[in-house]
Structures
1.
Amino acid sequence: MRILHTADWHLGRVLGGLDLIPAQRHAIEAIVAIAADARPDVIVVAGDLYDRAVPGEEAVGLLDEALRRLGEIAPVIAIAGNHDSGARLDFGTEFFRRAGVHLAGRPRARPARVELADAHGPVTFHLLPFATPADARFLTGRDDVASHEAATAALLAGADTSAGGRHVLVGHLFAQGGESSDSERDISVGGVATVPTALFAPFHYTALGHLHRPHALADGRIRYAGSPARYSFSEEHQRKTVALVALDAAGAVTVEEIPLPALHGMRTLRGRFDDLVRAAADDADRQRDLIRVEVVDPIVPPGARERLRTLYPLLLEFRVEPPARGPADAARPALDDLARSSPHAFVERFLGDRYPDAACDAVRALARECMEQALAAERER
């Protein structure tokens, strides 16, 4: 059986004020084209279809279009992630099922199953939407469930893998050994977040969502498909893919990672302000790339962010990091010494310590004048 595995679409995501719907539509178009070319037996979306529980209209429309188009190619199995509202995704599941789209929003004490078959016999897909320990306690009636490991174990106890054939788990969780990015929402509330991979031993393949970098665990039998687009600058060097998984007659797994094209590049630019301005003239991709800037000038000129945004229209993050201080700056005066200093001496020390190469005579004169005005105002009180 050939499984096209994707996850973490996060439709409706916004990054640095930029609506990512166009980039997500670009990725969905690529996934549909890959599915049309590969003709898998089933398409799996392992959670976080939306970026928030109450998605916007464009996000809902894009998911509707994606499921319709993918469902015309092969059966689709999709589950809720921690960003989704499971109850909302469960709406109309019976109607969708008749059209070959199997949605599992809320977790169950006995995970929902989808039975498919190929030339070698049946393949059972067990669906495990994101579940908190509190969810598992309610569903199973077990008060001892206090962690994500215990919650997953309790719910998987209801998944019957004793019958013949091959078994695939579709889940949304943080498996031990997984590699995270800072764009993933913390799921550790209610106990330890990670789940040991030993819990997935009964399954021939485990298709996971939640972590945004595509990677495999346990010799490839457990895999994160990753997100189809970059959702934070911690992902700027990640290669986004979908996984085409082949499950043979004995349940052995082989995987082909198929790259997804990106609408935007993503880069971090670091340097002095004047250097960044000069470099823009020779930057062929500055109009289309998502940019984070880290300026290292001791003093950043007023309007630096706005000036750089005229050169890099998709500047999403702007940071100022003054140059590192040398060893001579390590000996800082004690607080009581500063308290005994005159106001002018305090200002001089501050300028010399904070801006050693940039505190020119004009700046020092302005600082002295401001201090005089402040002292005069204080005396008049």
Note: The chain has eleven helices and 19 strands.
2.
Amino acid sequence: MSLYITRNTIGDVHERVVSHIRRHGDKILTENNELTLEIRNVDLTVASPFDEPRISPSCFMGKLGFDEYAKALVFGYKPGTNFEYDYHTRLRAWGSGKQNDGVVTYKGDNPSNVFYKDGTTDQIDYIIKKLKENTTSRRAIATTWIAPIDENRVDVPCLQLVQCMIRNGKLEMFVVFRSEDMLSGFGQNAYGLTALQKYIADDIDISVGPYHHYVISAHIYHVRDSHELGRFPE
């Protein structure tokens, strides 16, 4: 089953996609043995990503938590913070080696047999430069998946691709998730990624346009997160 939703705000889209999956999702037992309700091929558009409500009032986390997440995604986490991966590092410091994300070659089955290049690659800086060079470019793209690393891990990126285009004088952002928890994850991810969209638009000196969010496996953990799900409108 596919799903297409277009609304003005992140908060409205969040509530509608959760409601739809709750009512129409297929029951899927994940490879981690958790029950989910799932809809595949979900296409969400937020027409005015900075109109309110940017956060659904049904969310557990408040604005302070959302703002901290957005700041970390755009500018990075505080020194000493360590994750298996994070989107800032994958997008803005590719090749740092801090999270095994700067692969040049890979040999054998052991993830320790990885060799890193020198220096880092800021893919967001590349997007900005590309769009400044050519405002109709379709090559302003950043990716997160690194096959020789992520194929050997349990915890891997859900966000796979970010692409920006300038159309009708505004910066549009397109993101692709291989998998996403739409109850607990979508609101925070969309909030942070639109903050990144604005960061890019401000640097180019244009307005923010629509935000497009594609999910291949959009799901909710309806048993595990039943209390949080109860806060959302049916």
Note: The chain has one domain: 3-229.
